[in-house]
Amino acid sequence: MSKNLVNLNVNPCKMCMPMGSVSAFYGIKKCMTILHGSQGCATYIRRHMATHYNEPVDIASSSLTEEGTVFGGEKNLIKGLETLIKLYEPEVIGVSTTCLAETIGEDLKRMIKDFNETHPDYKGKIIHVSTAGYAGTQYEGFFQALRAIVEQVEMKPEKHDGINVITGMISPADTRFLKSVFDSMRLDVVLLPDLSENLDGVHQPVYNRLPQHGTSVEDISKMAGARYTIELSTFIENEKSPGYYLEKTYGVPLIRLNLPVGLRDTDAFLEALTKTGAKVPKALIQSRGRYLDAMVDSHKYNAEGRAAIFGEPDFVYSMTQLCIENGLMSTVAATGAKCSALEDKIKTGIAEVGQFMFNDHFVIAQDTDFDHIEQFVADTKANVMIGSSDGRRIEEKMGVPLVRCAFPIHDHIGGQRVRMLGYEGSIDLLDRVTNTLLTLKESSYRETLYDKYYDETRKAPELKLVVGGKMSIEEKTKKHPCFNGCGTGYARIHLPIAPACNIQCNYCVRKYDCPNESRPGVTTQTLSPEEAYKKYVYVKEKMPNLTVVGIAGPGDALANYEKTRETLQLIHAYDPDVTFCISTNGLMLPQYANELVELGVSHVTVTLNAVDPRIGKDIYQYIDYMGTRYTGEIGASILLANQLAGIKMLTEKGLIVKVNTVVLKGINDAHIGAVVEKAKELGCEITNLMQMIPVKGSVFENMPLTSNKEIMEIRKQNSAILKQMYHCKQCRADAVGTLDNDESFSLEAESEAWKTQVTTIDVLSEKVSDTPVKPALPLFAVASKGGILVDQHFGHASDFYIYEYEGGTVRFKERRSVSKYCDGSESCDGNGGGKNVKMDQILEAVQDCVCVVAMRIGEAPKRKLMEKGVKVMMTYGRIEEVVDEAARAFRSERAI
Amino acid sequence: MSELKILEERKSFIQYGKNQSDGCGSLQCDSDSLSGAVSQRACVYCGARVVLNPITDAFHIVHGPIGCASYTWDIRGSLSSGSELFRNSFSTDLSEQDVVFGGEKKLGKAIEELVAKETPKVIFVYATCIVGVIGDDVDAVCKEAEAKYGIRVIPVKSPGFSGNKSYGYRMACDAIMTLIRPHTGPKKARSVNILGDFNLAGEMWIIQNYMKEIGIEVVSTITGDASYESLIKAPTASLNLVQCAGSMTYLAKQMESEMNIPFVKVSFFGIEDTSASILRVAEAVGTQENVNRAKALIRREEAKLKGFLESRIPRLTGKRAAIYVGGGFKAISLIRQFNAMGIKTVVVGTQTGKPEDYEIIGTLVDDDAVILDDANPTELELFMREKGADILVGGVKERPLAYKLGVAFCDHNHERKHALAGYEGVINFTNEINSSMNSPVWQYLQVPEFLTEEGEHE
Questions:
Q1: Which of A300, A456, A762, A771 is best to mutate for the B interface (most B CBs within 10 A)?
Q2: Alpha-carbon dihedral of residues B44, B50, B53, B55, nearest 10 degrees?
């Protein structure tokens, strides 16, 4: 048992004794209550009760002042009694003490005796009850008042046929229910107290400030002569129990029962009532059946519940019991009152449900507060709370819904009408709890399951663009040495498949092939798409950190579009996770942008040296576009328009675009900012401002070099506009490896190896063979329609699941549809099933196998198969199991 | 209350245990329901709607009087990662006037309204019974709308009387083919479509996660969590996985013959089937790497389940189950899952099982088990009582019947809110069986003595 061990009660789960005491007096006819103490007690209690019951609650106070506190409050109390008699004319007055009155030692008994003597005109009954706030909670206070009532009312011990029923603080609606049961069974019952009307009054033309209903003093006096008393309280101690007093003093037998909540305890209550000889009416038996039906109807929903129940001990017990019989795990049962008996009473029941639900995590707590309850709710993952509205803070904070069904309910209306007693009350309450669980599920399961199962990486819209890949562009970018900032760890390969170019830049000559030279446009040799594919496969196997395939020339990737496409398709078929990176001058970009996206290209670099054709005309000698050569400003204009349109198309599709700009002294060095601005506007990720490498024979061969310092300065200036690339190595068109370690030349030496060892694939074929052509392997055929079990007769077979045998184990190869082996005759219906399929087709479908497994097979086809050397197995079972069995047989046969 | 009787005409649809005689299964099945016998089967429209409904961004217009649209409005637990459009129910709500003078105009206007207000990519128009009778040319209206608005408007020929639920599946498959046929493309290696999972409680996502882990790309999901955009990519997959064979084999065969995409049947219900299916996919389209990953996944998940099952199964062993579900495949799968738990299946029936399904069923159950085709409530009641079933697995309609008989119930239907597929599904399925069968409520069904002996008040 978890007990509140700290010295601080945080957010109390209980109220004080006077609260219970005045509530009990509200069930006495024409009774008015006065609290002997300072003013606040009465006011707070009235406020609490008024919002719960939605009724006017009048409680007088002796309004002790400082003087009264020091010299005794008798004067105040007498004045108070006089006044309330004048105002209310009550027939019964309940005088409850408070902390203050008890602590200063007020002798109520004497004071009231004196009052009666000094006020002979007053004929009513004054009942005093000692209820110091610190002596217990409202739960004890309630019974304390009832005990005082039966002790102080003059009893008439003459025996009669009636019985007594004593309750704790149940709702007015439940009280009415009890009375209706007594009526329907024609029982003579004194019900103490009777809150049915006084705290749930009807609307009437004239309001009467003095409660007119409830148990009368006359009825109470008959309690001493009753046949027996039923006291509906699980935990109340003998010293506070009115029933115990009646038994000890007047010999009225006491039957102590739990509140009639749920099937078991309502049965027990009704059975106790039948001891009078009364019969249980049909309507109640019907509602019992209806409750059973409700239990069954909702048992599966309740099995998903984890309830946190809190409140007065009797409520917690009965509510927990209701949950137990409905298989609803109560993971928290907590009361603010001191009640060490609670745990023993409910532990076994909860543990049994826990065993059923495989959940042994529950807490039973007494003398606790909401600070602890909140912790318990979280620890035990409770998904519904049942109790007073004081749980609303936890509801708000943790999103655990609260069923408000115990005193006090401040934030809902109808506290006075809450039902939980009897079969019908149990249905009401159970339905509320079950529906709360259902609402919670209905409103959250889509989101919960989405969060649980939906893979976020599949959600990224960019992924749609990356054909076949399972990595998002973000992931790819992280593994791309040119984009991840430092280039370490991941390798790239530039495949030189694009020899042709469609523009002539004044800084470029592509004819050089010098292994010592490393710069864009340079390669040792160009490759065909198939060679490129082989090279990739070869390198990938040696270099698992190879993540990026770049097409960077030596010409323009898009001027050689057919080759680029074929290369990418081949490689993609081998490695769907590969990142494709394309470099282009952008001239053909608008034409191919969409196709690049379809091919799975995620990164594109566009060389954009100027965004003004007047500058561009000095950089480009000519462009070849749509069969025409353009020069000067016109050429530069066409190029620029296509570059801008193309970049826009790519970025709109979510691709990562890098802009490369060669800084050319005296030509575009003052224009760089404008280029970077434009790149940003178009949605590019990064710009790479590069030094020009002067090449002999080029127009700009004598242009002065931009120094490292200068280039760094320009990059820094522009980094305010857009991310800059600082680590560009200006790689060759056939670079391989990490940025720091180009291995293209060592690979060159192995070119024979990759050209011969790697076999080609057909991109359109369904399967990638990653090993050289295999010899034909022994095949096993299983007749199966459902694909899980051997479930077809050989003669009816529409499908065979074919397994191949290699190295002692079998592996699924393919499903063969018999209809595919159609000979073209009329019997082939294309549906592959039924009687029309010819045996010949079936035989044809399996004739290359070493063994056929079917549910059954006729003698004739069996013979035919045997003739062809095909073994036959007749069996039921899972495909994998029977194939394993067949393979074992095959193996042992081979061994011989 | 009249005595429970088996109708003479129904006797041939019922069989005790495995049929020993000719091995071809003498149980009558695959025929029309007996009128008036309260069949549990549904109609063509139902079958078509079940299959197409999970397409999340489609407009489903039910052309006919309102009932059909009303009963199928958001009643299934298919989840979406995108649009929630499919959870609406659109209907032309035909009136008497329309029935007399024809509903084509109203349908045309309905589509026009929709196009004006929304931006549909695809509209499915379901022809229901009345439309079939009054002879609206739904095809023509759809064709015209396609031409006029440049979107896909696809008729689904599903008048209820034109066949049974299975026929509705075929009509839905035809509609899907109509949608995807124009979108061919090169096949992607190591990629699959998943057919016949409707993403109930996220089951499609669970399967997709397995595929992702073993390195197989899922191109298109049909139809759980599908969208127009994802569906039209379907022709580029290199293999179709067929999960709900009953509804999707027809589509898989069409895709095989027209698009050259082979298919294999798989099942992600139960540990054995899930593991076998995952491995088979890897072997069918993957490399050794994919196979290795599949094996690792299977090993890990099976190990995770071991302890769970060891604690649960003792509570379940020895109990008796009754099964009444739609297709034979599902019934077989359930019997096997029950067998794995030590639960004996004593009554088993399907709405649309085929002769060979019943033969397999015969081999999986004991000789005294009752096998039924197209059973009615009276038969279910009779046999569940006779055989002392502890739990029934069935559709929503069967649930209250089980409860009235004091029999636990497992919701293995399209309204479920927890996944039953995959390894996770094994946990949920086991928990559900336990939570119903072992619920404390069953122990209260006896009426106490003081209520029976002393009788009623009057």
A1: A300
A2: -110
Tens digit of each residue's pLDDT (9 = 90 or more) over A615-645: 888 888 888 888 788 888 888 888 898 898 8
Which residues in chain A have Cβ-Cβ distances shorter than 8 Å to B432?
300
List, for residues B39-67, the tens digit of each pLDDT value: 666 789 999 999 999 999 999 999 999 99
CA A59 to chain centre: 49
What are the percentages of helix, strand and coil residues in chain B, rounded to 5? 50, 15, 35
- Report the residue of chain B nearest A575, measured CA to CA: B189
Beta strands in B216-305 (DSSP E): 217-223, 239-242, 263-265
The helix (run of H) or strand (run of E) holding residue A569 is helix A561-574
Reported residue count of chain B is 458
Burial class (CB in 10 A: 0-12, 13-18, 19+), A577: middle
Task: With CA atoms as reference, report the closest residue to A53 among A406, A415, A388.
Answer: A415
Candidates 3.30.499.10, 3.40.50.1980, 3.60.20.30, 3.30.450.70; CATH matching B44-180: 3.40.50.1980
CA distance A639 to A628: 13
Q: Which amino acid is at A97?
A: T
pTM of the model: 0.74
Beta strands A799-806 and B217-223, pairing class: unpaired
Give the count of beta carbons closer than 10 Å to the beta carbon of residue B131.
29
Give the mean model confidence (pLDDT) for residues B331-337. 93
Residues of chain A scoring pLDDT < 50: 1-4, 459-470, 513-516, 760-773, 824-836
To 5 degrees, how large is the angle CA B421–CA B427–CA B432?
95
Q: How far from chain centre, in Å, is Cα A548?
A: 37
Please tell me what DSSP assigns to residue B402: H
Q: Where are the domains of chain B?
A: 1-31+318-416, 44-180, 191-299
Could you tell me if A495 and A549 are in contact, meaning their C-beta atoms sit under 8 angstroms apart? yes
Q: Which residues, in sequence order, are CB contacts of A311 under 8 Å at separation 6+?
A: A13, A319, A335, A387, A388, A406, A407
For domain A471-755, give the fold.
TIM Barrel (3.20.20)
Choose the closest CB to B280 out of A450, A458, A812: A812
Please give the Cα distance from A157 to B447 (Å, whole number). Answer: 38
Q: Are A671 and A648 in contact (CB under 8 A)?
A: no
- Chain position carrying tokens 């069930």: A27
Using a CB–CB cutoff of 8 Å, tell me whether A698 touches chain B.
no
Interface contact flag, A295 B444, Cβ < 8 Å: yes
